[in-house]
Amino acid sequence: MTKNNNLSTISLSRRAALAVAASAAALLAFAAPAPSFAEDKSIKVGIMSGEDEDVWRVVASEAAKKGLKIETVTFNDYTQPNEALERGEIDANAFQHQPYLDNQIKQNGYHIVRVGYTGVWPIGLYSKKHKSVAELPEGAVIGVPNDPSNEGRALRVLQNEGLIKLKDGTGILATIADVAANPKNIEIKELDAGIVGRSIDDLDAGVVNTDWALKSGLSPAERIAQEPIADNPYRNFIAVKEENKNADWVKTLVSSYQNDTVKAAFDKVYKGTGLSAY
Asked: Which domains occur in the chain, in start order?
């Protein structure tokens, strides 16, 4: 009888222990933090080839710590990243400012929105033939980017330097048709944004986007004028499809860029030619 009682006690003890263990496991499961939303989440981000690749390697490293895997897809001209984003070939891009995106949306009906600023690259007037704006001769040939937003930006640099005057009320998408006065009779040559810097030897001067200036081997010493930085509307940003703007992975992507670690990498890569803008 004692033996049976002992067996019953052991059996009850085991059942009690299992019940306690099961209850503890349930409590731990309830109390444990939920896995990151981005666990095993992979995205493709379109960027311009060149220096920005070094910056985005650091961004990808920061994102990986938060469970978000970033694959960068590089492009060589400004029209492709938005096309790829709209078609769903990439999940985000980071290369443009708002005036450019606004014009692209107007032309192509894209459903793309800004979600987080990255940097600003003040556009400059470069010359290998003249050391100052004052030295530019009568009839000087000056290259400007031919895409609408950057052409307007370039023409405002020329206006700030007194080389031309734009019509009153001209918006940020100014073209050479909006030039109201040209006291030095300069010839404004419209070229692809990536070509202006590479054509500088054949021009008296050229207004070149900073990233293209670096790619073209132009140095700050050859920059004879620059747009103002204060209240600059040309800050670049990360963009996504409108339907994704509130997604958790988007917030992680932005925070993976906007931090001191990436800023240090950005400053090292761009050496002051670009400035963090968030």
From this structure: 41-121+233-276 (3.40.190.10), 124-226 (3.40.190.10)
